[in-house]
Design brief:
This protein is mainly alpha-helical. The protein has a single domain, classed as Arp2/3 complex 21 kDa subunit ARPC3, CATH 1.10.1760.20. The protein is 71% helix and 3% strand. The protein has a two-stranded antiparallel sheet with strand order 1-2. Strand 1 (27-29) and strand 2 (35-37) form a beta hairpin. Helix 1 (7-23) crosses helix 3 (52-69), helix 2 (40-50) runs antiparallel to helix 3 and helix 2 crosses helix 4.
Length: 175
């Protein structure tokens, strides 16, 4: 948590929360159920740059702020937990680690299974009262389609990130 006492880390983290919140309003619809979203990218960047704790905080603040700015129904803390876990997962896989294609694939697979498929299916089941097996079956197709798309988008972003970030923060990326 001492990272959050660093003004530069705090500033960049706040910037990432703001970007993620704005990106959450944009989507590219593929079908009625499947859409490309970009909100996860700043959360992943925060985890990669500052570690799992800060990544989780960025995920939490993004979810809460997005709800406050543009509520789309009742606030449900289960989705906040999912967003926190996403930031933690990205931090565990990328912080001070070499960014490789296999690492990105395993990270995205882990995040997709834990957060998108399991936790978000449970959240939707609780929220709407549908049986978990029905919700999970419906979400499985979405997850299978979006996994390669999100992996490619994440790869492009992570490969570019060290080139656009301040030089004194690049040490968080292994060569």
């Amino acid at each position: 948590m001492k990272k959050l006492k660093n003004v530069q880390v705090l500033t960049v983290s706040a910037f990432l929360v703001a970007i993620a919140t704005v990106l959450g309003f944009f989507k590219i619809p593929i079908t009625e159920l499947i859409e490309i979203r970009f909100q996860f990218l700043p959360i992943a960047a925060g985890g990669a740059m500052f570690g799992p704790a800060v990544g989780g905080i960025i995920g939490m603040l993004t979810d809460v702020l997005a709800y406050l700015v543009k509520p789309t129904g009742a606030f449900f803390p289960g989705f906040t937990i999912s967003s926190i876990l996403s930031g933690i997962i990205y931090g565990l896989f990328f912080y001070k680690k070499k960014i490789t294609i296999p690492r990105i694939i395993v990270c995205q697979l882990t995040e997709t299974i834990i957060c998108s498929l399991i936790i978000n299916s449970i959240n939707l089941s609780i929220l709407y009262g549908n049986p978990i097996n029905v919700v999970m079956a419906t979400r499985l197709l979405k997850v299978l389609v979006m996994f390669p798309v999100n992996t490619v988008i994440l790869t492009v972003m992570l490969k570019a990130l060290p080139r656009v970030m301040p030089s004194n923060m690049r040490e968080n990326f292994a060569k």
